[in-house]
Amino acid sequence: MSVLVRRSFPLGIAAIVGILMILELFQVGKEITSSAAMVRDWVVIISGFALCLGAVHVTGFHVNQIRKRTAGRWPFSIVLLAVMFSYIAVGVSLTTMSGTYRWLYDAINFPLAQVMFSLLAFYIFSAAVRAFQARNFEAVAFLLCAILVVIGNIPSMPLISSALAQIGPWILDVPTKGAFRGLLITAALGIIVLGIRTLLGRETAYLGRA
Amino acid sequence: MLKVGNFGTFYLLLFLFVLTLLSIWLVRSKGMKVHVRRLAGIDAINEAIGRATELARPVHFTTGTMATLYGEEGPQILAGLSILSHIASQTAKYRTPLVVTVCHPSTLPLAEEIVRESYLKEGRADEFRPDMVRHLSTEQQAYASGVQGIFLREKVAANFMIGPLYADTLIIAETGYRVGAMQVGGTGTKTVQLPFLVAVCDYTLIGEEIFAAGAYISQNPEQLATMFAEDIAKFAVIALVLIGAIVTLFSKELLSLLKL
Fold first, then answer.
1. Do the Cβ atoms of A190 and B223 come within 8 Å?
2. B130 to chain A: which residues are within 8 Å by CB?
3. Which of A48, A199, B67, B101 has the fewest CB atoms nearer than 10 Å to its CB?
4. Which residue blocks in B30-107 are alpha helix, DSSP H?
């Protein structure tokens, strides 16, 4: 493929679409607004194709696993493909509005997702145990703040010591919020500058050319 | 016509745009040198890949779950993919196995192209395999459990999580810890996840650092110039915050002074 198509074409599209969306934000004219709306419609269509691409990719990967009889993996690949195609078949034959389609999702995926999410509590605990080992100054500060926040969350703490109960919420509301806002402002500036770099065609790493 | 409510945004964008162009001009024409402070998280990438190469175990990369390339978190995914470009070049150079997992399929073609290009650039096009980039699931928890499975089965030695990270971050990072992987995490605006990353990962890229990564890795003078522009904007913001704080603190005194 020529250099023009592989390098300049994607950069040009990114710049044109980017500028169009910025102009739309400032409501420069009706033509710009309608063109931007059209681009957004394209995004919906392309994302639909992306989902199809994802399904094709998953199928290809797992068919390969089964074909190669990859140790410890191929039986799971059979289960995955069976479930995926059964679900697609139910959706296509009974439509996605049918009760069976919804039931399959709610009865299988939902509880499994909840189980995974519940495990997060244990992961937080094990991560906290490691993080709160007072090895250096930062870890000690981390540990102290955590203890004070935990103390602040004890329901009966205001009865024991109202001053101690207020330190935890203060840590969350003042220094933590201040630091997070600082991070968000600098991240926002970083996003804008990255956007300008992309519009100017200076950022090419996302095309695999660092 | 320009909407009145957007004046602030317009002037901020204009200011940053002019500043960026000016910085690029200064670097190009006047030969201005831009120094960027050391980003430990980025420097650790090579160390982690080196470790994985010695152990002959794979390197894993993800831009996180839930977010889409065309959504408001798209820039963070792009920033993550810029780092993937460097990681894939290094794994191609040292012949280290690479596994890239994606949650939303909109990232899939871009990630695949980046890895393919990186292998091509390093002269190892024949070693690129399409199964290096894997789409697991669009569901957050299903994706997280898929990554856990890869970690445990393939004994990943280095894990990079850079992008808009959500609650699954800890599930993935904790599994990474259990298999003994060296981990680098980074997120831009998902500040809620930062304490988890700091607690679990060996190195963390915070906020703007992930957006600076592309320029930092390439060391391209024109890209670095844009970071110089960003720093000037940052100083302007700090000055505005300080002025705002002073005005708020002494508002009564200032008002009485104005009345006089």
1. no
2. 60
3. A48
4. 40-55, 74-94
Query: Which burial class, exposed, middle or buried, applies to A105 when counting CB atoms under 10 A from its CB (0-12, 13-18, 19+)?
Result: middle
- Give the residue carrying structure tokens 């244990």: A122
Q: For chain B, what is the mean pLDDT?
A: 89
* Tokens describing residue A4: 């023009």
Residue type, B49: I
CA distance A160 to chain B (A): 29
What is the value of pTM for the model shown?
0.88
Contact list, B200 vs chain A (CB under 8 Å): 127, 130-131
Give ipTM to 2 decimals: 0.85
Dump the DSSP string for B100-144.
EEESSGGGHHHHHHHHHHHHHHTT-GGG--GGGEEE--SSHHHHH
Mean confidence (pLDDT) of chain A: 87
CA dist A98 to A92, A104, A110, Å? 10, 10, 17
- A134 at interface of B, judged by CB pairs closer than 8 A: no
Tally of residues, chain A: 210
Residues 6+ apart with CB under 8 A from A39: A17, A20, A21
Interface check for A202 against chain B (CB to CB < 8 A): the answer is yes
Mutate to test the interface with B, among A3, A126, A203 (most CBs of B within 10 A): A203
Using the beta-carbon criterion (under 8 Å), do B214 and A130 form an inter-chain contact? no
pLDDT (tens digit per residue) in B201-224? 999 999 888 888 888 888 888 888
Q: Which residue has the higher pLDDT, A119 or A210?
A: A119
Average pLDDT in the B84-90 region? 93
